[in-house]
Amino acid sequence: MPASHAGDLLGHKKVALLGSYVEVLFMLIIVFAPNIGLLIALRFGQGIVHSLAVPNFNAFAVGGFPQEQRGKAAGILNGAIGIGMLIVPFAVGFTSDQLGWRWVFFISSLIILLITVLGSFGFKEPSTYKAKPRLSDFDLPGASLLMVAVAPLIIGVQFIRNESANISTILIVVSVLLFVFFLFSQKRTLSPTLPIYMFKKASFAVPSINNIAIQFSQGVGVYILPVFFIQGLGWSATYAGAVLFGMAIGRPPSSVIGGFISDKFGGMFVIMLASFILVVSLAGLAYTGPSGTLSGLLPWMILYGASQSMVQTGLQKQMYGAVPKESLGMAPGVLGLGRHLGQAIGVGVAASIFSSFTTSPADNPTDGFRVTMFVTALIVGGTIAAASILSKVKFNRRK
């Protein structure tokens, strides 16, 4: 969110390029990191500058099209990401095995540098930003408070599954209190990091809530699927990775298809359609997963990955249409914030439920897997349905 806010003030291309060049520098330094402590610190710094690049490149790319074509633009962008997800894991694994992990960062830095240089000279951005933004236009206190509020929540949900439940509760309570204080302070800020008034619009609030629910399911899948395949079914890591590859197969075409549909019928139509498919795929995985057969797993996994990509395209289409044209960065910024919160909570909840069924080596993790997937389906489906119903009730009352 702070990086998107900076992009809205200074220009998305300018901020994205700055973040990308500095990230290359971080990656080159990581190549020579002498110990794990410095490596973690450098990765932390890389994460900050990475946040400058990703949402602003997204806003620059999609924002360059008129609203009636932004669904296609977002679909092609997400489709390209899907193609990368098909290629990169195998390339990284091969490079790590043959040359070592440091070469992964070195080769990646060269690729990012080449693309960033091409982007610096190959594309122009329309001048829709303040000619001379002042330092006071950037909400530094709000940006700092938001990041401080997010950290204990992300850490706290990871402690739910072990004996540190008291620490987890304290961290989550502290995070909630900081979030409340953050929201209160944003109402009194002239140029806020997160404009609270936008949440009064159903077209903005509903997809924001739905995004967290969708990303929650993504976090559950990221944790539970590899753990269950290896620990529960006894598969090797290589075989489990090959099966997980199935989730990425449907991402590129579903992203593009979702973009075209959203331009024709609207972003909310794609969000609801893809969310329904997602819930069905979660239930299907819960039912067929314990069998351990590829014929039972792969169709649901492909459907799971495809629905994830399709709904993300619909969310982008909807959010870009809901935000003011001078604040396009708010769309990927809010979606990014929801992604990190939803996935972190999803991992924590999945780990907590699954581990409660596998307290000893003799326990069968099948029940834990099924319960986790069914609970996720209920949470995602219930949240999206409730948000949609409440938005219609509120809209009708106001009308």
Write a structural description.
The protein is built from 15 helices and no strands. With about 400 residues, it is mainly alpha-helical. It folds into 2 domains: about 325 residues, Up-down Bundle (Growth Hormone, Chain: A), CATH 1.20.1250.20; about 50 residues. The longest helix has about 35 residues.
Going by CATH, the homologous superfamily of the largest domain would be MFS general substrate transporter like domains
Span between termini: 31 Å
Note the run of SSEs as H and E.
HHHHHHHHHHHHHHH
Instruction: Give the proportion of residues in helices.
Output: over 70%
Number of strands: 0
How many domains? The number is 2
What is the CATH topology classification name of the largest domain?
Growth Hormone, Chain: A
CATH-level-2 architecture of the largest domain: Up-down Bundle
Quickly name the level 1 CATH class of the largest domain.
Answer: Mainly Alpha
Strand count, sense and closure of the main sheet? none
Give the rounded overall mean pLDDT. Answer: 86
Q: Strand pairing plus helix content: what structural class? A: mainly alpha
Rg computed from alpha carbons, rounded to a whole number of angstroms:
21 Å
Principal-axes shape call? globular
* Number of helical elements: 15
Strand content: under 5%
Poorly predicted sequence stretches spanning 5 or more consecutive residues: none
